[in-house]
């Protein structure tokens, strides 16, 4: 039970930080330079990290 909570908290913290990081990156790009490929790369990286963490969640809850 405790492990599931730890994973849920870690997941929500990661999601919030990912969204915040993406917002800051987008703001920086908007202010300084606009490069769609860079935006796609950042989005892909965040998506892969979120997917990896999401796949770890069920494993955490089993313990």
The gist of it:
This protein is mainly alpha-helical and 63 residues long. The protein has one domain.
What does this structure look like?
With 63 residues, this protein is mostly helical. The protein is built from 2 helices and no strands. The chain has one domain (2-62). The protein has helices spanning 2-32, 36-62. The relative contact order is 0.17. The model has no long low-confidence stretch (mean pLDDT 72).
Summarize this structure as a short list of keywords or feature phrases.
63 residues, mainly alpha, 92% helix, 0% strand, elongated
Which helices and strands appear, and what pairs or packs with what?
Layout: H1 2-32, H2 36-62
Helix pairs in contact: 1-2
């Amino acid at each position: 039970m405790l492990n599931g909570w730890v994973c849920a908290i870690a997941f929500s913290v990661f999601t919030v930080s990912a969204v915040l990081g993406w917002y800051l990156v987008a703001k920086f790009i908007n202010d300084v330079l606009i490069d769609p490929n860079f935006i796609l790369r950042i989005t892909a990286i965040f998506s892969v990290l979120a997917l990896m963490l999401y796949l770890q969640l069920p494993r955490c809850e089993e313990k």
